[in-house]
Amino acid sequence: MARVFNFSAGPSVLPEEVLKIAAGEMLDYQGTGTSVMEMSHRSNAFIAIAKDAETLLRELMEIPENYKVLFVQGGASTQFAMTALNLMGRSESKTAEFVNTGMWSKKAISEAKRFGEVKIIATSEDKNFSYIPELTKDMFDPKASYVHITANNTIFGTRYRELPDTGDVPLVTDMSSSILSERYDVTKFGLIYAGAQKNMGPAGVTTVIIREDLIGREFDITPTMLKYKIHAENESMYNTPPCYSLYIMKLVFDWLKNKGGVAAIQKINEDKAAILYDFLDKSKLFKGTVEPKFRSLMNVPFVLPSEDLNGAFIKQATAVGLINLKGHKSVGGMRASIYNAMPVDGVKKLVEFMKEFESKNG
Ligand SMILES: Cc1ncc(COP(=O)(O)O)c(C=O)c1O
Q: Architecture of domain 16-258 in CATH?
């Protein structure tokens, strides 16, 4: 067996321990004689899996009682519309405020525009989204339905170090690429959403954490499947959930809990990211593209001085088992996604390889 180090931005590396458990339980899940893929979602065995997933996530993120945890489908991209449909419907202003930190924010903005007024209160577009704009409380309209941010921009590799103070206006956050990678105080958010396929499990399931008082504010036209209220009332079982994805997610949560939880993984993530950023800061050939203060712990974009060198680096890295390092076209160069499940050894091997590449091409 030859496992490689997979730096994909998503779907991405999963803990090997989790994959081994899933392989062992593939044909017979805990004496049921069936795979989880073959089970009714109404069976006791599956209901226990779904409940465990929620309990573990509540524990890992210290989610207070007055928040609902929903597991839905459609990816984070569906949440761009769902947040607007559900949070603007009953508010007086029908205005949502956005901070534009690059492509994922832009997509959320364009969906929200279909349903109400959108105000972009700050943007980092002037420097190709290489930083997070400064935000002060007076920038937010106290009458807005909600304020939306992207906690970690997967493409540009930027991360909020501090959350904006939006007063009483609910803070809605796309946490797709940083959920469970560092500690977040859930009470600071009205709603958090995240696709699973980076730090939580395989694609197909999307987590929504919503403060209860924000449920039931949807427009009347909101389709049934897009109402948070329906998913909350039916404990995310209104229709058939993505059963297998939820099962793997539950195993990932178990794995994270056994590693010591979010505080422990945050320390590991900080150390892991530092190995790469320290090298980038010293290198004369490679260059990080993000202002140091806003560097992501999860996605590290970097460039070489020419397209030829970028291409050669990616090709040679792939040949030694360091895969999926090609950057997004809006930044170019390379991007190393180093999610929770990326072992420290993967980052060390990458840096070793970068040093070697520099000594040959510098
Ligand atoms: C920050 C962020 N938001 C949203 C998305 C879109 O997620 P999905 O593919 O689950 O719709 C991604 C995907 O990579 C992302 O990184």
A: 3-Layer(aba) Sandwich (3.40)
Choosing from 101, 154, 193, 200 the residue with most ligand 1 atoms within 8 A of its CB, the one to mutate for a pocket test is 154
Confidence of residue 2 (pLDDT cuts 50, 70, 90): confident
Judge if the beta carbon of residue 176 lies within 6 A of ligand 1: yes
Q: Is the CB of 130 under 6 A from ligand 1?
A: no
Q: What does the mean pLDDT of the chain come to?
A: 97
Q: How confident is the model at residue 328 (pLDDT cuts 50, 70, 90)?
A: very high
What are 280-291's pLDDT values in tens digits?
Answer: 999 999 999 999
Q: Does domain 260-361 have CATH number 3.90.1150.10?
A: yes
Nearest one of 173, 125, 200, 153 to 297, comparing CA atoms: 153
Q: Is the CB of 75 under 6 A from ligand 1?
A: yes
Span 275-304, mean pLDDT?
98
Exposed/middle/buried for residue 150 (C-beta within 10 Å: 0-12, 13-18, 19+): buried
Distance (Å) from CA 265 to ligand 1 centroid: 22
pLDDT tens readout for residues 162-177:
999 999 999 999 999 9
Burial readout 228-253 (b: 16 or more C-beta within 10 A, e: otherwise): bbbbbeebbeeeebbbbbbbbbbbbb
174 is catalytic: yes
The residue ranges of every structural domain in the chain are: 16-258, 260-361
Structure tokens at 186: 């859930």
What per-residue confidence (pLDDT) applies to 103? Answer: 97
Is 138 marked active-site? no
| 263 alpha carbon – ligand 1 mean position (Å) | 24
